[in-house]
Amino acid sequence: MIVRVDTRRAVALETTVVAHGLPDPIGIETAVDMESIVRSEGAEPATIGVLKGEVIVGMTRAELRRLLDEGSVKVGARELPFVLAKKLNADTTVSATMRISKLAKIRVFVTGGIGGVHQGEYDVSQDLVELSKNRMIVVSAGAKSILDLRTTVEALETLEVIVVGYKTDEFPAFYSASSGIKLNMRVDSVEEIVQIYRWMEKIDFDGALLVANPIPKESEIPYDEVQKWIEDAEMEANRLGIVGKEVTPFLLSKISELSGGKTLKANIGLLKNNASLGAKIALALEENL
Ligand code: PSU
Ligand code: MN
Predict the structure, then answer these.
(1) pTM above the 0.85 mark?
(2) Which of 102, 144, 272, 280 is catalytic?
(3) Which of 13, 72, 94 has the most ligand 1 atoms within 8 A of CB, as the residue to mutate?
(4) Region 65-81: what's the mean pLDDT?
(5) Distance CA 89, CA 83 (A)
(6) Structural domain count, the chain
(7) Given this model, what pLDDT does residue 289 score?
(8) What's the confidence (pLDDT) of residue 145?
(9) Ligand that lies nearest to the alpha carbon of residue 116, given by its number in the listed order
(10) For residue 265, what is the domain's CATH number?
(11) Does the Cβ of 112 fall within 6 Å of ligand 1?
(12) Nearest ligand by distance to the CA of 274
């Protein structure tokens, strides 16, 4: 494993969103922008991925480019040993990035939206399991609205994942700030987040603290507007027989197409917003060592 950052004030960033979540070159541009945002807050970005079986914590732009040009496998935590043994290129989802962050002793991780429980046939992301096993702070704009959000929130409870709404009483719906699903834990400051994390350490709590950070107003798309695109994208996925790892990337790109790029813009907006909050949390955590 190559670690290029000071992990005490690092913010981990994933590469699946770069390689499979956003179209090229927007993926790389967004990653680089997120890194700048993290730096401008005084924290250190650590973009995580795998090149030829080598885990890299703190990928350079050129290395991100290699991932895209040479191609990479989308991996969750359970596929990591496989791609490492085979010396493959891999982009890491939330679960794989969390697992590597733990090895590198990074405590804060920023993503767009976690994976969760899909609608219809059984399809549940490894992200949920990893969140239940790994003591980290994960910032996300709720879970992707292509999911069954109600079931995802219930699953998070079953798995003992601490979910707090940042300045909200609701679980955010990725492209929209509100979902109508109430959360019972709300925080209004970075200090409160750090205090909760301190208590997690003291009581030896193994799961993650998921900070649900709503998409900012200027990037938001109303829930009802998004719903129609999601339904159409899902019908198309069923028609084409898309299953497994391809489901999430397919739906994201189809919805972007159906919305004329509106959801893509929203996705970028929420990623940057999360990067900013994650950096503030990382700094506050370090100062409080
Ligand atoms: N957030 C985004 N875009 C993405 C993802 C998150 O804004 O593409 C990725 C994350 O890496 C997450 C993955 O872990 O989608 C979930 O994939 P699946 O549903 O196949 O578990
Ligand atoms: Mn899946």
Answers:
(1) yes
(2) 144
(3) 94
(4) 98
(5) 7
(6) 1
(7) 62
(8) 86
(9) 1
(10) 3.40.1790.10
(11) yes
(12) 1
